[in-house]
């Protein structure tokens, strides 16, 4: 719960039922089918938009990688090498973007 490095408390690592005042968790009852289906459709739309955003970020990172290679005067590498070189950086940035969105 306490991170000594950052000197912060992170209650996300603690289960809700570990607290005395939250010994039981009450989940809401399901609503009628119409509301549930609307929620499912909204979730689908949100996921489509997020996937679209991830593709755009990936494309922009690919363009930046190519631009940096040209600036450094490196020869164009085969597609496989290019993917392996930028995969870690791209995944790291996507994870950072995702954690910023979920805060």
Which terms would index this structure?
single chain; 103 residues; mainly alpha; 2 helices; flat
Write the layout of secondary structure elements.
Elements: E1 2-3, E2 8-9, H1 33-72, H2 79-102
Antiparallel strand pairs: 1-2
Helix pairs in contact: 1-2
* CA-atom Rg in angstroms: 22 Å
Uncertain runs are: none
Largest sheet, in brief, is: 2 strands, antiparallel
Question: What is the element string, with H for helices and E for strands?
Answer: EEHH
What is the overall shape? flat
Strand content: under 5%
Number of helices: 2
In round numbers, the mean pLDDT is 77
Descriptive report:
The chain has 103 residues and is mainly alpha-helical. The chain has a domain at 35-73. The protein is built from two helices and two strands, in the order ββαα. It has helices at 33-72, 79-102; strands at residues 2-3, 8-9. A two-stranded antiparallel sheet has the order 1-2. α1 packs across α2. The model has no long low-confidence stretch (mean pLDDT 77).
Question: Care to give the gist of this entry?
Answer:
The chain is mainly alpha-helical and 103 residues long. The chain has helices spanning 33-72, 79-102; strands spanning 2-3, 8-9.
């Amino acid at each position: 719960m306490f991170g000594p490095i950052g000197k912060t408390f992170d209650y996300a690592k603690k289960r809700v039922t570990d607290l005395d005042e939250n010994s039981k968790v009450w989940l809401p009852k399901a609503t009628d089918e119409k509301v549930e289906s609307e929620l499912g459709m909204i979730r689908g739309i949100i996921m489509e938009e997020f996937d679209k955003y991830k593709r755009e970020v990936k494309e922009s990172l690919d363009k930046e990688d190519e631009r940096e290679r040209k600036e450094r005067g490196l020869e164009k590498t085969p597609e496989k090498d290019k993917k392996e070189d930028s995969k870690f950086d791209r995944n790291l940035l996507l994870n950072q973007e995702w954690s910023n969105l979920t805060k």
